[in-house]
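Researcher: Let's try something more involved. This one mixes different molecule types, so please make sure each is placed in the same coordinate frame as the others.
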Amino acid sequence: MKRIAAVTCVAMVMAACGSDGGDDAASEATTAAPAPQSTAALEPAEEPATTDAPATTAAETTTTEAPDPAGDGVLSVPAEFDTIQAAVDAASYGDLVLIAPGVYNESVDVETDGITIRGESRNEVVLDGGMELDNGIRVLGASNVAVENLTGMNYTNNAVFWIGSTGYRASYINTYRTGDYGIYAFDSVDGVIEHSYTAGSKDAGVYIGQCYPCDAVVDNIISEHNGLGYSGTNSGGELYIVNSVFRNNRVGIVPNSGSYELCYPQRETTIIGNLVHDNNQADTPAIDVALLAMGNGILVAGGIGNVIERNLVFGHDRTGIGTVPYLEETPSDDLPTRDEWELDCATSRTLDITIPDGAILWDSYENAIRDNVVSDSGSGDLAVASVLTDTSTLGNCFTGNDAATTRPADLQTIGACGAAASGDWSVEALNVIAWLTEVESAPPSVDWQTAPLPDLVPQPDMPDAATAPTDPMTASMPAMDADAVGLPADPRS
Amino acid sequence: MRAWVAVAVTAAVASAAIATATVLLDGDTDPVGATAPDRIIAGPQGGRGQFVVECELSHIEADDPILHPGMAGHSHLHQFFGAVGVTASSRLSELLAAETTCDQKLDTASYWAPLLVTANGDVVSAARMVAYYRAGPGVDPERVVAPPAGLQVVAGRADATIDDPQPQTVVSWSCGDGAARQVHPPDCRDIGDLRLSVVFPDCWDGLNVVPLPIGRHVVYSTAGECPASHPVYITQVALAFDHPAVDPEGLALSSGSIFGGHADFWNAWDQQKLERETRQCINRNLACRLAGARAP
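Model: All components are placed in one shared frame. Result:
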């Protein structure tokens, strides 16, 4: 019943169009000096791979079929193997595929567990799809594969992509210009995406989708000039997004629910200590969600039980931090019941499908927004919205935030964490339905192949890329102390 | 005189082809394979192996390289996706060398279907076509191989009508990528695109890549099994043509009745890539790509 009424309501709304182009904030300086890999402390590397950089003298026999010709666990490209794919195919568990500087027009598939693919230079080892190839590196169900210290650009789908993997790690990666995602982990668990930079992705710079619990960390990345800085459909559960920068995207961080992929609803992503600003960028590529939700910093769209703390958020045309509904116009299944929220992904994906006869609306429930510093937001530093549901009943709470404007008014009083909702939630409520008409005048998507990128400054290299040992166990989620993550420094000061 | 004879002969062959195609896809009494799938594969993506290609409209032409080869302008109007510049006279080698409107640049296959015709005669083309490659319903994904190079298939019956309808498991309509499928186009205005879905057979005889003049070279699996006559399990190709939503009242197709939905597939992929994707995504049962909800 609810969904039918929602559609009617949506269809009848006529609102003025007011989305404003968005200013182009100057890029800040690059990220802080690279910390040691956050995974390093988890397990001591016990198998010291060889330390020598590959000798170029081995290059006489360039195409070598024999696995690991030097017998040292290091497979060098192009010294020992002409292509990255050839080295990857020859590698076995624990091996390092070490790539010398150069441009590689390759689409690499990885099927072997426990290998590490590493560039000798993050900025000078470039996998280039030339706007023709689909994925830079695609890991197909293989476990504990790490990709380190290289650049992937100009791929029609994704630069680095894990699917169906248990254990993954992307470290010191750059991605520029991709038709779908920069770094993408789908139906994969137990992972790390860290010290990476992504720009110019049509869909999202980083996407973790279809997992619960995900057991994954996004740590110390920069995502800019993408449609979405971060997208997380139906993902969560021990999923942390920390210490990262999301700026000058159409939208910053967007966890959402949807029945078009499995493992709904989206739940329990912890977003702490990020710098999120000026996500109003009009000249990026974009999919429909990015057009609809343009101008928001951290936007939970139909998500449940997310924790958003100690982020510095400013300069958004709409909301700084918002929890809003997600309208799914052509759903593939009906909304899950409350007791189904508890089910893990392996269980929920086995449930029968019930096809609704109309659109469905995913409300955002029980999200906790605490101790953030939010400013300069066009329609509210903090906001909660629904279409049909009384927002006071959704259980979202707001406490300890430094925020000048809220929608509804006095949100930190009427919706304080740890207390029952009180007061009148209709005063200065956010009209999220207007977004559905405003989208018609949103700046259209720019082709990902030609959309302007920011100045691409060289990003810091992985420490000791030529000699650092490999350990497949570092391609898995490290211990996480979220309480230790603090508010980021203000780049304006 | 000579030319006229040639045309007449070709036309006769083409008519026979149409008749054959009708027989192929009509009824369910044939002992050597089904004329429709058991069920529609719908619902959330992500739980089964697939790869997906999204293609923009290439061109509109009254040509049909499968049913009317070499006869320009002899077909009803078709909308073409994939390989650019396909005509009634195109050859496989030309497709392989062509540009493509698909985001997968190694997919130079040609995909085509009739267009929508509204009650007041406006012809409406799709903004995009999505090709889903999957194992057929119930088929063990490890048994599936890529469609052979050059395979030509027509799915759906152009001559179906409201009184002689075709199975929804072959041809259906929906709003966007929603799982709710219908025999007649629903009203999708204010909801999403109007999608025509056509599902292709997934069992091949292992011998013939073209439907002419041999006849029935592909059929649908039943309960996950291909018949002995068509023992090769190939990927099930399901094409979705996403049109702007229009008033469904009085809608027709450029081929005639709105109930006569059909589509054509001519495999001219880079065959090595097609086989690789089949191995990596279908055999391993991984959702290598999901289609976006609506046309851009």
